[in-house]
Amino acid sequence: VSTQSTGCSEMDDFLRAINELQDVFSTVGVSSHEIKLPQIIVVGSQSAGKSSVLESIVRKNFLPRGGGIVTRRPLIIQIIKDTELPQTGSWATFLHKQNKKYTDFNQVKDEIIAETNRLCGSSQNILPDPITLKIYASDLPTLTLVDLPGIVKVPVGDQPANIEEQTINMVRKFVENPNSIILAVSPGNVDLANSEALKLAQQVDPNSNRTLAVITKADLMEKTKENTKVLEGSSIPVKLGIIGVINRSQAKMDAGQSIVACLEEEEEFFQTHYSHIAGEMGTRYLTRKLCHILLEHAKDCLPDLILRITEQKVIQENILQDIGKKIEEPYGLLVHLLYQFCQRFDHSIMGKDAIALSNGEEISGGRHLYQQFDNTICRDIEMLGRLPQDIEYQIEKEILSSSGPRPALFTPNMAFENLAKKQVRLFASPVMKSLKRYCETITEITLILSRDVFGRFPNLKRESHQVCLELIIIKTQQAEKFLNDYLTCESRYINTNHRLFSKECERIDLEVTAADSDPNKGIEKRNIQKIKELLAVYSGIIGNQLMDMVPKVVMSFMIQDFKEELHKEFIEKIADQDRVDYLMSEDPEVEDKRERAMKVLQALERAEEITSTLN
Known about the structure:
β3 (about 90-95) and β4 (about 95-100) form a beta hairpin. α14 crosses α15. The longest helix has about 50 residues, at about 525-575. By secondary structure, the chain is an alpha/beta fold. The chain has helices at about 1-25, 30-35, 50-60, 105-120, 165-175, 195-205, 225-230, 250-255, 260-275, 285-325, 330-350, 365-375, 375-385, 390-405, 415-425, 430-455, 460-490, 500-515, 525-575, 580-585, 590-615; strands at about 40-45, 75-80, 90-95, 95-100, 130-135, 145, 180-185, 210-215, 240-245, 355, 360-365.
């Protein structure tokens, strides 16, 4: 007796700890199936007799009854053995009303209805938010059961058209938890091939390793060989067994017959009609079986549960680290973040830090800028180095224009210079286009960094980006002016004394002189060919100079000057003591996320303490 008492005590302590884990996570809004706690899920179609089974286990009338869906929120029923209570003494409380003690179980029923209606309203809607009921009793073992809404096939009244889908989806979320035990309740007076509970259990537990079948209304089953085989467990393959029970009829409830009396009638029925399996039938055996299954299953799940709690702790700690701590010195943090942004920008440009682009690519800001240069200015300038297809016509026209009434005996310098100036001016468009691309790229980099550094503070993020944008525009305009002035200088004076041009000019003169011996080639055609080649050379020289100059101008005006002036602009325009509360106000979603993560982390730390006692 002493050994048995010790074993029961250990079982109660262990299952109490599992209950406490359930409470810890329910309090912070983490459902037990999310954390994959070991638990028994009661599943069945509407009117399968789930309520009668649960009331028989608890030995109290405490569940709402009536037509339609009565259970519209998951009800977590925690039965806790309390040896200090008098024999058959019991009381109850709710997790949402921990300070209220219920001794009248009709009031428990009323509170379940009230708490259901509080979230679901008076309609027939269902919600996944659980109600946790604790029942303390001296004559009951510690056990936890989760009662779910019954599966409905046809909507009635104001039930939504997809009520079947809603109930099945809710039940599925709970029973998909690999650590849950499925208590599949099916009425015995209906063909079990049509049992919704067994069908759903088979889908999530195909080997039936964690399914226990309960056949209600066993007294209404025809006593055939097939039905006897069902109760013996030889026709339905469920590893945890099949247990028959008898529901209390409405007439017996109306007559005031006690649950204890009904349990005695149940035992008598099985002894009379199924004597060879009577010891493994009935509600009392079902209760003992559930306690044993839950205890052994919880012990098996404990190592994985401890691991999951540890993993979830790391996840919540990372969330808190990403969000940041609650602000204690807003102005100091503001100044620090502004400096951090400038430093991040510098590191990104210098290739020390990577940024995440909108296409998912991670790359340094400097490399991103180089790609823009390589993909735009180089390509566009190289294309300008190729003379237009009608260049010979343009040359001929320019030669005739600059020669006046005299024939063009010699290559006219004026014609070459006019055409060279036109060619130089053509470079303005790709150069300005490249500056625009650089401006967009730098703006993109600052926008990404604003999100990363100031993401918690939407007002600061918006104003800091505005400061960046204004400074980028100023520096882009300065770069544009510098390059426009340069191109103006190039177009105003065609430097034919350029070392490379002079060398190429000598080569072209030699080729033209050699071509003079060809009597079929006129002077005018030779002049056109010579100017064409000279234009190509000069255009290439200007293009090469621009390909070297544009990145230097961008780095000087749009990067270096921007970096040097940005922190000063931040301090002058943003770091204002009078506006610090406005700038450092967090996005409400961030505050909610931090509070949620802190609560969950505290729950996980408490869960660690609880599981350490189980170890």
